[in-house]
Amino acid sequence: MSQYYYDTVTFMKASQLVPSFMKRSLYNLITKKGQALKILVSRLSEIADPNLNAWQEEEPLRSMTVLHHLLDGSTEKDFWTPFSIAQTMLGVWFAAAHQPWINLHFVLLELCSRPEYVELIREEIEQVEGPLDCKTICQLSVLDSFIKESVRVNPLDKMAIRRKATKSFSFRSTGHPIPQGQVVCAPAWELMHDESQYPQADTFDGHRFVKDSRTRSMKNPMSGTTFTDASRDFPVWGLGSKACPGRWHSSLVMKMTLVKLIQEYDFRLEDSKKPVRWHWESFQMPYESTKMLIKKRQTSHSLKP
Fold first, then answer.
1. Residue 233: what are its φ and ψ, rounded to 5°?
2. Using CA atoms, how far apart are residues 106 and 290, in angstroms rounded to an integer?
3. Backbone dihedral region of 157: left (phi > 0), alpha (psi from -120 to 50 degrees) or beta?
4. Among 1, 47, 58, 154, which residue's CB has the most CB atoms within a 10 Å radius?
5. What pLDDT was estimated at residue 229?
């Protein structure tokens, strides 16, 4: 699996540097003619069954899977074959393999530069009554707001909802023509820095999204929205029927990691003056060399059972 990810990313980078007619040869060279992809698709195809009734998993587990979501909601049942299922799942896994962890990296950078929020979130965790399980973790409003604000000011990609026209197309609202083969996308950075939706948009505010009936107005119209909300004003998850179906899982994994870290450890950057991110086209990425010092808290409490 890791070889497939490595091959894909390497080819993505290299293909930007060569003309179109050379890309097939470059792909064959880098991926050894798609060797890792072929092995994965072959093995997945042996176990992928588009017939939901044939699955061994019982309800409600069956209906909670991403694959069930894709198959059950599809109007083109004939499209789904063991081969297409295998390819689709590889695409889903590829998206999940890097985005949650890069976003988590940026959240940790923001926490290190704003230690006052570590204490606020720690207090919020300690105020939880009963078990600190998936349900209660998702109800930590300050944590959710801080994550969303971190992603807002540190989007992995300044563009979102990329779509390639498979045939020539014109927008009904404006008549603007899109030739076949062209890619269109939404300006995520500009949308998430719109002053009408995000007052003082260039200022980091970890409480920006905490629900407060007194501020949910033109003063702060995004108050009460959550990290997993997919909207025009927060397009990192996509939009509409094509919005990321795994965003709740991604959010939960990030929150579980952060709760464990904040509750039981003190942490800071080894060198707060070193650069922590680099840019390539519309993307921003964290440096692998960034080091964070972590120390077990003497007064820490383990996660509640």
1. -85, -10
2. 11
3. beta
4. 154
5. 95
